[in-house]
Amino acid sequence: MVNIISKADRTYDAIVIGSGMSGGWSAKELTEKGLKTLLLERGREVVHIKDYPTSNMYPFEFEHRGKLPLEIIKENPIVSKNSNFNEYKQHLFVKDKEHPYIQSEPFGWIRGYQTGGRSLMWGRMVQRWSDYDFDGPARDGFAVDWPIRYKDLAPWYSHVEKFIGVSGNRDGLKELPDGEFLPPMEMTAAEEYFKASVAKSYNDRHVIMGRCAHITGNFDFYAKQGRGRCQYRDLCRRGCPFGGYFSSNSSTIPWAMNTGNLTIRHHSVVDSILYDEEKGKASGVKVIDSQTMEEVEYYAKIIFVNAGSINTNLILLNSKSSRFPNGFGNDNELMGRYIAFHNYRAEISAQYDGLKEYRTEGRRPSNGYIPRFRNVKKQETDFLRGYASTFRGSREISSDKSGVGEELKESLLNPEYGSWRVGSGMMGETIPKHESRVILDKTKKDQWGIPLLDILVQYDDNDEKMIQDFHEQFTEMYEKAGFTNIKTRDNHLAPGFDIHEMGGVRMGRDPKTSLLNGNNQLHACKNVFVTDGACMTSTSTQNPSLTYMAITARAANIAVEELNKRKV
Amino acid sequence: MMERRQVLKELAILTGGIFLVPSCDFSKEDILKAYKNLKITESDKQLLDKICGVIIPSGSVVKGADDLAVVDFVLVMTNDCYEEKTQHTFLHGLRSIEAISKELTGKKLSNQSQDESVDFIQSVIGGKVKGADEQGMRDLTYFLNTTKVLTIEGFMTSEYVMTEIMPYELVPGSFKGKVKIQEGEKVNIYG
User: Fold this and answer.
1) ipTM score here?
2) Distance from CA of A74 to the nearest CA of B (A)
3) Is position B109 within any domain?
4) Which of A31, A352, A363, B97 has its CA 20 to 30 A from that of B171?
5) Same domain, B11 and B96
6) Does pLDDT of B16 surpass 80?
7) Which pLDDT value is given to residue A2?
8) pTM here?
9) Are B90 and B21 within one domain?
10) pLDDT tens per residue, range A538-567
11) Which helix (H) or strand (E) holds A475?
């Protein structure tokens, strides 16, 4: 044990584990409230703008025009299945060997170990939950009742949206509440057409412009974060040199740093959370420096666990003491269970031959969005819950490539507009189940001596029925719009490739059936807060980051209040 | 001698060309180091360069695949991104093209005019001709299809095309979803 720096110098008011989407928010809120905060990141440092090596590269500057050499693909059979793992941004993804895990069932665990975590490579879609989502488990009799409702989170959604910048329309839909929006991005001609077509045929289905975390207005406000307007490059996942979309790197972390209260430590793999038997509280964390392999302990009054759902489960399960022999706060042995995700397997595409007098200009980094319309107000299908969907319509441009020589060259140099290509991807809710779980392997360990995680999560009959329904309903909607050449597809990707893994440390009202209370405190140890995807009781269909951020901001402010009242 | 080699090397880097600098021994052909999986020689590369130029020829107004050294892209891609087995097929196809074109047209490809080569390549890709060696024809067909696809990609994504012919804007600055197409408007695939 090398703890050469004195204990006092390793003591903070708060420790935040993980600098991604939710960890960045913990750090921002806690430091703004005056807490000396240590932010632990297991990966390397990635500084906004400076460390985005490909962000200003032209397509022709990439040797393989975006493709990866076969050698890299063969070394990385898991992460290679994610289409964003490519020559433009592979450096932001965890390679398979860097942190292995066991797949007792196939599971794509896609990670980003660096400052900002996956907030650099996320999809940036930010839709609020409504009470139709929070009510789900109680109404439909699965999981446990959420201990919070929309009214608890609404002010925090607003708080987060204002700060990160969210572009969107006020659509006035009860199932997808409006937020604090900057001007919306434009729909394409084909998207506007489909929106009108769906509105004509259905009164409960809506095609809207997706709300996305891009700056499209209120520029002076975001200038204070050093961020500028979205430039419609659609190169977001390389890191944006304009700060046009939200990431921890461009926003929350530098903001927290400016308070003077933040310390970041990189290459810090958290082994476990330490428990003080006498005080009955968590006292700190044990960190392994991934470069020196040294173990160091840090101490704090409160701990925010934001390691990313599955790693949060790993850390807590690996934190064993005589009080918690089965994992930190795991009195009911439900920790690691009720893991769920989003079902992204179903897709549909088609063509539209109208509106050929129009084209688009620029590269929009977002999509149209269709909020969930199945089983919203009552159960109406033979499967539980439902799905949201993307919708995108873009004008095809192509050349006849059948020739060789002059003929081919002429054709390539004089491309023509074709039909509109339209498509949708399903974002389905999955049901958290007792048997869907992560466990620690009893013998196998990683490079840092921490047990390997074993992931046991599968699709079920409910998911299969939902895929079929999506294909049927969207075929009908597409046919009603006069789309042709309709093709449905099941991409058969394993769970996890949606990158929306959730649960394992769920919130609930009853300590017997949940791990966290309505404030995201462990029932069994109130100075540990879990506010990343691990806390999710159910998944609903919305892209989850906005909800993680709102839950985090809320919990961080509750933590500060409780700390001031000496309650934690 | 060293000085000359250094100049050659720098020239090669500047032009994005050959990375192998010939040693003083010219008696045997070296494998080009930049493409070590493919095991290709300088004369293989020259022949491939010619084929790329047949597929997208040089012109008085717009440059062709040969002017732009698209051959380097074709080789990088086949060397780095293809399975070993298909690399063998590719190389076998390339190395058989001279003999097969001689067999079928009476002329080696390297001795053909542009038009003759275009006809020959089209007839092979279109499956309109049969050579004596069936396996050889299959490999040649695979080779020509692959080379055509990669030549098109390499040409269309070359710096020249993406900056001078169909400019790619790195920073569009705005997005418009419904722009009326003007009559006679030049279509830009990167627009």
Assistant:
1) 0.94
2) 10
3) yes
4) A352
5) no
6) no
7) 56
8) 0.94
9) no
10) 999 999 999 999 999 999 999 999 999 988
11) helix A461-480
